[in-house]
Write a structure and sequence with these properties.
single chain, Vanadium-containing Chloroperoxidase, domain 1, mainly alpha, two-stranded antiparallel ribbon
């Protein structure tokens, strides 16, 4: 694959390899965000190595303190409150690595914002009936109507096969769907960015703001936010099965691309939606690490925190 040498050939190349561009951008950002999880995991591992008392078995933890819900019970819905709180106030808890990752998202989104109109023009001038049909009926619904039935099937299969991990993943996926939808809708109503098809000629720089009439808006892409939130939950839960994350993020990336291809969103809309969805999914899954209690074990009277991770 030959890379372009100037801006004109870049736009043409970008049209022909839209999914490749999305993939490179998202992989870069996922890598930055994943470093935060790696650092946290190393800290937890170091803490565990200092423990002189073995971790408690799962059976000794009261049911109302467990985070691995395999049925929509009280503990499951209680976790929604904790996850929702953490999603809402997460910027106040970010460390320097998370701020670097967030800054990277802002910088890339700003660069894409300056190229939104050019990307939109190139893509819309090179439409294909077959691709349009696949995009509309095969990809777009994964950010809405296909996702919940798919999670229902995953839960059903888990129930039949007595696979607790499948049931847990399906429930967390449903939670990610809801939080992804809410987050996207709140931002849409605060910004009211005009969609590409509203104006003639299209104008990516029109933002009506929070006081505009309640209607549909472009920023961020709700479909992309939802599909990446759910994909991240599943990919994280089955991270040791390499084809699962690949399949999840490929489908999510194609869904994001379909929103640009169908002229429903600007490129920067889907990028921000993907970053939001990824962050929501990771927050939900990271919260399955449960802090049990602090026990005094040293001569100085200091305590050590027990951490029980449910895979």
């Amino acid at each position: 694959m030959n890379l372009p040498r100037n801006i004109t050939s870049f736009l043409t190349w970008g049209k022909n390899h839209l999914l490749v561009l999305i993939g490179f951008i998202l992989i870069f950002q996922f890598h930055a965000l994943a470093q935060v999880d790696t650092i946290s995991a190393k800290r937890l591992k170091a803490l565990a190595q200092d423990d002189s008392i073995p971790a408690k078995p799962l059976s000794s933890i009261p049911k109302d303190e467990r985070t691995l819900s395999i049925v929509p019970d009280k503990a499951y819905f209680k976790s929604w409150l904790t996850d929702g709180r953490d999603i809402l106030i997460s910027p106040y808890r970010w460390n320097k690595y998370q701020w670097i990752a967030a800054s990277g998202v802002v910088v890339v989104a700003a660069l894409l914002y300056t190229q939104d109109i050019r990307i939109q023009q190139v893509v819309q001038k090179n439409q294909n009936p077959f691709i349009s049909s696949v995009s509309t009926y095969g990809l777009k619904p994964w950010g809405s109507t296909y996702t919940i039935p798919a999670l229902g099937i995953l839960y059903g299969v888990g129930a039949i096969l007595k696979d607790d991990k499948a049931r847990y993943t399906a429930l967390k996926g449903a939670e990610a769907y809801v939080f992804g939808f809410i987050t996207a809708q709140v931002l849409k109503q605060l910004t009211h960015r005009n969609r590409p098809y509203i104006n003639d000629p299209p104008n990516p720089y029109l933002w009506a703001g929070p006081f505009a009439p309640f209607d549909d808006s472009s920023f961020p892409s709700g479909h992309t936010t939802i599909v990446f939130a759910v994909a991240t939950v599943i990919a994280t839960s089955y991270s040791k099965t390499i084809w699962v994350p690949i399949a999840c993020y490929t489908l999510a990336g194609l869904t994001a691309a379909s929103r640009v291809y169908n002229n429903d969103h600007w490129f920067s809309d889907v990028f921000v939606g993907a970053a939001l969805g990824f962050a929501i999914g990771r927050t939900i899954m990271n919260n399955h690490i449960k802090k049990l209690k602090v026990l005094p074990i040293s001569h100085a009277g200091m305590g050590v925190m027990f951490v029980y991770q449910l895979d």
